[in-house]
Amino acid sequence: MTKPESYVDYEAAWDGYARRWRAAHPDLSHLGDEWIGREAGAADSLAAYVALIRDRFVVPWIRPEDTVLEIGVGGGRTAALLLDHCSRLICADVSAEMLDLTRRRLASDRASYVKLDGTTLDGVADEAADVCFCYDVMVHLEPRDIFNYLTLLPRVLRGRRLCVFHHADTLSERGFRKFLGDWRHSIGGRRHGEAFSVMTPAIMARFLDHLGYRVLRQDGESVPRDCVWICTAPEPAR
Length: 238
Description:
The protein is of the alpha/beta class. The chain has helices at residues 10-24, 46-58, 77-83, 96-106, 143-156, 173-182, 201-211; strands at residues 67-71, 88-93, 111-115, 129-134, 157-168, 214-219, 226-232. The protein contains 7 helices and 7 strands; from the N terminus they run H-H-E-H-E-H-E-E-H-E-H-H-E-E.
């Protein structure tokens, strides 16, 4: 198959979002603070949503000695949480604008930055991290893009090889309402990079099983619209 003439341009979408953000949210300090989990049924305030992410998906799983790779750092909200609980943080994103915002927010010599191309993890060294953390990102990725990242991750992980993945659940009540509100903007084979993907836990379970990931926990309650997985990645193929 040849590459299609049109495709989901995640990089342009999120670079554009970052440039528009300040005008749209002049009252907020950091990009990402506008997402408080209310639509997802997770929280009613920024503080409550940050506490949920920290208490359920960071503190129980991240160790002080860990190097964490975060895919899709956005404005750095989750990155700031992770950096409080790990040794080093590799911040990766397709958007150079987002990486710049995160760099300024963290201002830490324990963080490094990798500009991704959307299809590979080039720029991330072999066995670079103990943990991959990907939160509020896969909700925007098409299933094939999610599967692609799952195939790439084993090369860059070491040690515990722990992964935290958060994606949309279109078949949940809130997820289907989100789908009904979005579908008209993504027809005819066209889709904006900010749009929510059509994804389910059953598809993710099949992906993880096929690729040899070991599921430690599947959480469909903390963020009722979505699903969060804690799992370990397989050893890379030699």
